[in-house]
Design brief:
This protein has 299 residues and is mainly alpha-helical. It has 13 helices and 3 strands, in the order αααααααβββαααααα. The termini are far apart.
Amino acid sequence: MNWQSLLKDFKNFLKFERNLSENSTQSYLQDSQKLISFLSEINFNKKISEIDSNIIREFVYQQTKLIKPSSQSRLISSLKNFFDYLIIEKIIFINPINSIQYPKIATKIPETLSTKEIDKLIVYLKKSKKNSLRNCAILEVLYSCGLRVSELTNLNISDIFFDDFLIKILGKGRKERFVPMSKIVKEMIKDYMNSERFNKITKKGFEDILFLNNRGEKLTRVMIYTILNIAKKGTGIKKKVSPHILRHSFATHLIENGADISSIQHMLGHTNITTTERYLHVSKKHLIDTIKKFHPKKD
């Protein structure tokens, strides 16, 4: 059996028919490759249709020693999609993953940054000798627009509607949405574009990309994390600082100030509102303030 040929076809299916992002596609392929490597280790030489739930359980059990529960869940999900694809192609007729249970994952409430801490990070980045306008704009866009890191790195200049204070985002599954842009975000992006971005020699193919590195290419995800980590160390903030933390802070601050959950769902780009409900937590202070303000026996 030609596993690599199957993986190549699976990749095209994920990319062109499922419209998955490059990151999601690579995750699915890497997880599928892990299973293929395992089958090679146990000298499995039978037909693909003879891969049963017992073999999958053995593989998953092996992986539980190496990866955390959340990664185990993704692994099972990736394999389910892979075998579903094989069913579509009529290579197999039963998905051996269907009887495999997902691990229970404890719901962790991510930390959030206060607005003072976010301002502190921006003030520190303003002092940078190089790319200060770009780095400040990156942090402000991540927080004020609630973007995923991949959405930020892929942001095009042509997707910014300055007069309407809107940014068009291409999210997961290549789904488009519009998010509002504050006056501060608009000013920061314009300052960056009129200065550092204008003076940058752009490489071919990246002319429309908003945030560029020193080589005139699109910034990587790793570089975004590096910029935030430098700011965290420079300010002495003890909390974790990452694109996800800024996105979560964005959503939490909105709900604390009275925004409705459906609006937040749209801005975050969640297909299902239950995802937004799990994603958000309401601070204890906000709950206490709500009781004081609205409960009939508040006194």
